[in-house]
Design a protein that fits this description.
The structure is a single chain. With 340 residues, the protein is mainly β. It folds into three domains: 115 residues, Lipocalin; 88 residues; 102 residues, Calycin beta-barrel core domain (Lipocalin, Beta Barrel), CATH 2.40.128. It is built from one helix and 26 strands. The strands form three sheets. Strands 1-7-6-5-4-2-10-9-8 form a nine-stranded mixed β-barrel. It has an eight-stranded antiparallel β-barrel with strand order 11-12-13-14-15-16-17-18. Strands 19-20-21-22-23-24-25-26 form an eight-stranded antiparallel β-barrel. Strand 9 and strand 10 form a beta hairpin. The longest helix is centred in the N-terminal third of the chain and has 7 residues.
Length: 340
Amino acid sequence: MLKTSLIPFVLIILAYTSCDFTTNSKSQLDGLWIKSYAQFSQNGSFINSRIDNYKFFLKFNGNEVRIVKFDGKETGEPIDTIINFKQKDNKIILENDLGSLVEIEIAKDSLIMTSYYNQIHRSILKKLPENSKRVHWNPSKKQYKVFYDEGKEYFDFRNDSILHSFSDGIGRLIKNHWKIEHIDNHTILVFGYDFELYDNGTLLIDSLVGNKVYATDYTYRKRQFVLEEQKIVHKKPTTLLGTWKLIAKENSEADTLRLPYPISLNYLEKINFYKDSLLVFQPPFRHVDEWKYYENNKTIVLNKRGNVIKVVKLTKDSLVLNMDLTEHYLMNKKFTFIRE
């Protein structure tokens, strides 16, 4: 088990508000539950938290509840502790020394935990499949295209702890930590809790079939993910090398809402690709960066700035890039160049 500790949200009293504590409700409770999302009270209503990286698991078994939280940048030390509970007057009383009151309601497919610690706060938990089997998977030094219902992303597991990821629509490289954890027969891909553009910190690994990994995300709602392993190819196209002059730039509605940034690289005039470096001309400034090319995704990553550039079209004399070189606005748009 991970390091044992006490946590402020640990339940002292779980009051079943929707039904009596019976053998049937107890069997509903048994199993492993993951925190899906959080809600906070505002003007008498509960509002979903936009980003909530405080993931934890509850494992009910008989008269015991196991509480598991993995370590993270924001959430501190890991927790893995078991607390006994007993029934008293339609309530579950946990046998520890904390004084935080939490009410729990069994919904159709959820546990709704309402905490009155400092302020009214709710955690919605989803039950994980009881028939899960442990998956032996190590993605270290591998790359995957990730498909889900909202789109696709690219995962580059650089080593046994660092993950680089990006998508075509957002022009920024996300650098993060990752690890594989197991709770009983469940295999869980855990992302570091310092994700800047993600609101989920875990994926349940369902199965590994050939070069595809099937996973489920339980954040807000149940979503299926497919991670398809890619051949690692970083060969840079020789056609891309040379100097390219900007002739057209796509505008978006968001541009009308932005303040102009005179030093923004989006006001570039030329871009020059060398074998190991890239030079952006935005008079009177020049910016030099190292670049990496993901051949199987036709994507350029700038090492220093972390910008992600999609190569939409490349011929001998023309180049179309989907990118955003600002540091504040990360929605990509098309830049069209001709060879100089």
